[in-house]
């Protein structure tokens, strides 16, 4: 008898961000330098204080920590939220192995197979994988580059609600669009969530990555009044402290029942890495200017990439307001092919660019084929060079077709 894989495994999509990696490896083997603009791996150096904490790890045993998180680290996270003006108790927080596990825990503790979750698209492509693992269906609300990928009117979102709808997910600031939702938009989502008794998942891993701060913005959905029991925040220190490899995030909610369920899920996987949590404590002790200085650097990068794209013929792009991504529309009708071609057929002065085709960031079939997602995670000089390569590549690709 032939053994088969699970339907879940069969349905699991390859990560749109990583699936071109073999072509990038081949390009590198041929001696081509590849600018990686396809993945949100910042080049910003992890703070020396954090690396010191790793170096001076003083325990005799690398052990499990409590499933909810190491006490010192939970306290550090609690203190961080306190500094934002958001009082939490330790039981509102469960440390996770990256923000990724926080998404799993949020989905697994609230959604049944067949349930629907409304997400503005384009969205972080790995939500597709998380939804597949939980057996839930993503119902997209399409947003448009022409208005900075801001939300459509309330009635367009409400029209997506069915008896199976259990949640709305907002990634704010947004990966992949760089949109920072206004207070009015967040309030509108909160209103829908309240009126239809839904969960509100807020992925806030880019919380500080806002380039034009506005006084009235929420620092977190945890500040919204009247839906305290429905808000589930997904957080991570991957980007905030440039510690992607530490794999540390957390789920936060004031809903006691939910957090008890999250803890049971967390107990099944025992704990998040202890060593990472020691580094995480050190990260939370960094001087307060650390994060704003990093945001200034990202703003300079945003400007280099955005300005270069606006000069390119046939390219349309909204100015990103936050995170470190943008989604330009290119004068190309199949960016999956183009992104692959960049690695297999194109190079200039032994260099090329790797980008993520945007179709994988949409749930609606057919959308995103003329768009790419760029992560501006290199310094401004390298980004300027990468943008001139991209411009040259677009010309060359179109002239050969
Ligand atoms: C929007 C968003 N959520 C969650 C994650 C997962 O982060 P982590 O590295 O903490 O697992 C990412 C990573 O890029 C992200 O962009």
Could you walk me through the main structural features you see in this protein, from its secondary elements to its overall organization?
The chain is globular and about 60 Å long. Strands 2-8-7-6-5-3-4 form a seven-stranded mixed β-sheet, sandwiched between helices. A three-stranded antiparallel β-sheet has the order 9-12-11. It has two domains: 7-45 and 290-399, Aspartate Aminotransferase, domain 1 (Alpha-Beta Complex); 48-284, Aspartate Aminotransferase, domain 2, CATH 3.40.640.10. α6 links the parallel β3 and β4 (137-142). Helices cover 38% and strands 14% of the residues. The relative contact order is 0.18. The chain has helices at residues 7-11, 21-29, 48-55, 71-83, 98-110, 126-134, 154-158, 183-195, 256-268, 274-284, 290-311, 335-344, 380-399; strands at 33-36, 93-96, 116-121, 137-142, 165-171, 199-203, 231-236, 249-253, 325-326, 351-354, 356-357, 372-375. It is of the alpha/beta class and 401 residues long. Pyridoxal-5'-phosphate binds next to α5.
Structure, briefly:
By secondary structure, the chain is of the alpha/beta class. The chain has helices at 7-11, 21-29, 48-55, 71-83, 98-110, 126-134, 154-158, 183-195, 256-268, 274-284, 290-311, 335-344, 380-399; strands at 33-36, 93-96, 116-121, 137-142, 165-171, 199-203, 231-236, 249-253, 325-326, 351-354, 356-357, 372-375. It is built from 13 helices and twelve strands.
Write the layout of secondary structure elements.
Blueprint: H1 7-11, H2 21-29, E1 33-36, H3 48-55, H4 71-83, E2 93-96, H5 98-110, E3 116-121, H6 126-134, E4 137-142, H7 154-158, E5 165-171, H8 183-195, E6 199-203, E7 231-236, E8 249-253, H9 256-268, H10 274-284, H11 290-311, E9 325-326, H12 335-344, E10 351-354, E11 356-357, E12 372-375, H13 380-399
Parallel strand pairs: 1-10, 3-4, 3-5, 5-6, 6-7
Antiparallel strand pairs: 2-8, 7-8, 9-12, 11-12
Helix pairs in contact: 3-10, 4-10, 5-6, 5-9, 11-13
Bound molecules: pyridoxal-5'-phosphate (PLP).
Residues 40, 98-100, 124, 171, 175, 203, 205, 236, 238, 244, 249 line the site of pyridoxal-5'-phosphate.
């Amino acid at each position: 008898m032939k053994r088969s894989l699970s339907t879940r495994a069969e349905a699991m999509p390859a990560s749109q961000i990583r699936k071109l990696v073999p072509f990038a490896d081949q390009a590198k083997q041929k001696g081509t330098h590849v600018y990686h603009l396809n993945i949100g791996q910042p080049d910003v150096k992890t703070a020396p204080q954090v690396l010191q904490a790793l170096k001076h790890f003083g325990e005799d045993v690398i052990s499990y920590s409590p499933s909810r998180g190491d006490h010192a680290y939970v306290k550090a996270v609690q203190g961080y939220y306190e500094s934002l003006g958001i009082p939490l108790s330790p039981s509102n927080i469960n440390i996770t192995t990256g923000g990724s596990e926080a998404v799993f825990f949020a989905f697994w503790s609230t959604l049944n197979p067949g349930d629907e979750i409304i997400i503005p698209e384009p969205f972080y492509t790995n939500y597709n994988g998380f939804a597949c693992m939980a057996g839930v269906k993503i119902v997209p609300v399409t947003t448009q580059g022409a208005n900075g990928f801001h939300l459509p009117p309330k009635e367009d979102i409400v029209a997506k609600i069915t008896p199976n709808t259990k949640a709305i997910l907002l990634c704010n600031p947004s990966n992949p669009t760089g949109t920072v939702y206004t207070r009015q938009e967040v309030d509108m989502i909160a209103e829908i969530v309240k009126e239809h008794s839904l969960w509100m998942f807020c992925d806030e891993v880019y919380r500080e990555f806002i380039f034009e701060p506005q006084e009235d913005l929420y620092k977190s959905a945890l500040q919204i009044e009247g839906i305290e029991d429905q808000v589930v925040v997904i957080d991570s220190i991957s980007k905030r402290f440039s510690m992607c490899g530490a794999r540390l995030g957390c789920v936060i909610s004031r809903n006691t029942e939910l957090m008890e369920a999250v803890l049971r899920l967390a107990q099944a996987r025992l704990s998040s890495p202890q060593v990472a949590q020691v580094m995480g404590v050190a990260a939370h002790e960094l001087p307060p200017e650390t994060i704003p200085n990093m945001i200034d650097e990202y703003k300079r990068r945003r400007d280099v990439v955005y300005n270069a794209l606006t000069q390119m013929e046939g390219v349309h792009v909204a100015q990103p307001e936050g995170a470190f991504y943008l989604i330009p529309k290119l004068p190309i009708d199949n960016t999956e092919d183009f992104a692959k071609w960049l690695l297999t057929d194109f190079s200039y002065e032994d260099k090329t660019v790797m980008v993520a085709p945007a179709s994988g960031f949409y749930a609606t079939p057919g959308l995103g084929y003329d768009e790419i997602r760029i992560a501006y995670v290199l310094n401004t000089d390298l980004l300027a060079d990468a943008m001139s390569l991209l411009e040259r590549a677009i010309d060359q690709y179109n002239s050969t077709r």
